[in-house]
Amino acid sequence: MNATPDFRFDGRVAVVTGAGRGLGRAHALLLAERGAKVVVNDLGGTKEGEGSDAGPANDVVQEITAAGGIAVADSNNVGTEEGCHALVDTAIREFGRVDIVVNNAGISRFATFPQADAENLERTLDVHVRGTWHTTRAAWPHMVKQGYGRVVTTTSTGMFGLPDNLAYATAKGALIGFTRSLSVEAASHGILVNCIAPNAITRPSTSAAKPNITTTPLDDARMQAMQTDLVSPMVAYLAHEDCKVNGEILVAGARRFARWFLAVTPGYRSDNPAVPTVEEIAEHWDEVNDQTGYYVPETLHHWASQFMAHLGA
Ligand code: NAI
What we know:
CATH class of the largest domain: Alpha Beta
Number of helices: 10
Strand order of the largest sheet: 3-2-1-4-5-6-7-8
Bound molecules: 1,4-dihydronicotinamide adenine dinucleotide
Low-confidence stretches: none
């Protein structure tokens, strides 16, 4: 089925970070194919974030232009604030605006705790968290001025528990807080901020990259089933003007598209006028955890209205 062919991006300018390879490349190709002018950013280093190479970004730009699209390469390092500002400057200089930022660049430095050291944490936070923060922040005044913008951040289901890559999971968790809080502020400016949790086979997914994890062997069928371009339609939807959601996390890959949400149980409320005891909590543990009637807070205020409903308005 050829769904909604009118989801196009003509006149829109997209910045895609880490677009020289893997998922970012697939996102950039799809946005360009649908009419967006794309800034293909990639530092071009190793999967651990060492070195640089302008080749991957240039190759993707060539691929886009050969197919009749419009793109420009950018090899700034989103692991630095200057790099992020220079990247957005490229969009403004080359195309005069920035409508879409897909924060996709990432590195992966497998290490467990406590071997994962300060450098591991900092380098990981630099690219994933600070890179997303500064690139979005550099684009923000342009989006506010034009009263329009679409920001996509990239988290990971590693958030569900990835002990061998603790810094990575920590960074990806931070991006959920960033996405949700920024989305509240964004709405009044015509900006939507959503988060993708992709699932595809790329260079960090190879078993060699995960020294302590046994993964299903990557045979051809599995590689085909988990191609990067199976994630990009969701990213393009979140980047489109007709996107209906804000502050959401969507999981995409292997032809499945799903919502990942944060929910709270109604919990146990003590009627004890004194400070509840530890024993009381232990006794009511099942009620604390009972998922019946859980709610999905849209904002902090929404959560507070549910959690403290018994205190009255
Ligand atoms: P990849 O390694 O194939 O691509 C990442 C790209 O980002 C590389 O081309 C790299 O050169 C670029 N990059 C890294 N640091 C950069 C920097 N400082 N400045 C500019 N570019 C930089 O990896 P993949 O899998 O395509 O990852 C893309 C995003 O998706 C990452 O944020 C990753 O954490 C996330 N992700 C991927 C999953 C998967 O299943 N492949 C699962 C969950 C999250």
